Amino acid sequence: MSAGVSLKHSISMLMLELFMFFACFHECLSSSLDHLKGYLLTERGADAFLPEITPSAAPEPFLPLLAPSPLSPFTNSTVPELSGLCMLNFTAAQSLMSMTSIDCWAAFAPLLANVICCPQLHATLVILVGQSSKETGLLALNRTLAKPCLSDIEQVLTGQGAGDNLKQICSTHPSNLTEASCPVKDVDEFENTINSSELLASCEKIDPVKECCDQLCQGAISKAATRLAFKASDPLSMDGPHVLPELSTRVNDCKTVVLRWLASKLDPYHAKEVLRGLTNCNVNKVCPLVFPNMRHVANSCGNGTSNQTACCDAMDSYVSHLQKQALITNLQALDCATSLGLKLQKYNITKNVYSLCHISLKDFSLQGWFLSGCLLPSLPSDATFDKFSGISFICDLNDNIPAPWPSLSLLPASSCNKTLRIPALPATTNAQSGLYNEYVEVYHLIASSMAIMMLLRF
């Protein structure tokens, strides 16, 4: 496919699966878990590093302990046990719920959490409450119903194959369904307080690229949320240093109420497109990776980088830590490269070690079986499900953009910079697309492996 690579499973891989299964079974019998130490996602000390992975080369594949079929959660969907207390209309949002369960499919949820799963889950919560306001006249659930409703949502998604720990992965709480500190939740009061026609005109359809720079819809949402927040009381009449933080919290809570109102004015599909587009602006601004202690790199790459081999060995070993964390977008990779570079410069590493050690943007994303640095699209995307092919998502395996070394005299590069050349959608070259489409069909081995690795970590 011209827009990227779709990771799929097919019948033609059954022989490979059987080989992998017996290989893993033999490995389990012949060696202890200590043998897998280098491949597990375990926390190490400040100077302990995972097996070295050269950023310019594909990492060695790991063997999963088991490789369950990716189709089983969907072909054997379970009937959820609902509380009977929640009045949200799950039937009307059936397509939305199905999409969310696919985006948060159990084995992939931790890996796609930041980019796909959690943004889709939060959009689903907003849309469900927003659509229900057509019947109730309220843009929030009361605190008594919020808990069973959140539980019912989780039950429905899990029954369709989503992970059963989305609450922890995406930090969802019953308060995500209430008005929290926002003083307005009644639809009539809402529409009498804000300029609803202006808000709808600004947000009923957004360009996911232009919106992140122009912030037309985001500005309208902030304006409406601020108006709602001031309905409670005049913050200026309050004493103490907590005035501004409390007002900021109230405005943020009111933004959620505004989003629910917007969702009530759009059909679920278009509401989802708008909400994901807005969330994506924030997703691409921040590097989601956790940077471990870099003292070892500082010792090897400091002093003018006199020993290039030692420096690159240390950098490769450090980057291998980052390559065990999550799938990220190409713009997030840019953020991560900038963040790491600035941290290294604080250790008096002034030479461009990215260029010296041939580190590219895709080296900051997850590395695994046939995944030599998969970068997800920077535009909102979803996983897809096909009963013959299983779960798939767009993955860029050919984006070899060198990681830019940050300059202390310049601000970090922004996606709104017209000179920045990073594709919003990943592109594959003709010479490589056939190769990857043929062999990355073992994607579900990655999923099961990563899931087991994460479980073994705890």
Walkthrough of the structure:
This protein has 458 residues and is mainly α. It has 18 helices and eight strands. The protein has helices at residues 14-30, 72-75, 94-103, 109-136, 143-159, 166-169, 187-193, 196-203, 210-214, 216-229, 243-265, 268-283, 295-301, 308-322, 330-346, 353-356, 430-439, 443-457, and strands at residues 5-6, 328-329, 367-368, 371-372, 375-376, 384-386, 390-392, 394-395. It has a two-stranded antiparallel ribbon. A two-stranded parallel sheet has the order 2-5. Helix 3 (94-103) runs antiparallel to helix 4 (109-136) and helix 13 (295-301) packs antiparallel against helix 14. It is globular. Residues 1-76 and 423-458 have low confidence and may be disordered.
What is the number of helical segments per DSSP (H or I, 4+ residues)?
A: 18
Strand content: under 5%
In terms of structural class, how would the helical and strand content be classed?
mainly alpha
- Order the strands across the largest sheet as they lie in space: 1-8
| Radius of gyration from the alpha-carbon trace, in angstroms | 24 Å
Helix content: 40-55%
Major sheet size, sense and barrel closure: 2 strands, antiparallel
Q: Which residues form runs of ≥5 with pLDDT under 50?
A: 1-76, 423-458
Net shape: globular
Give the distance, in angstroms, between the N- and C-terminal Cα atoms.
Answer: 38 Å
SSE series: EHHHHHHHHHHHHHHEHHEEEEEEHH
Total number of strands: 8
Q: Roughly what is the average pLDDT, rounded to an integer?
A: 77
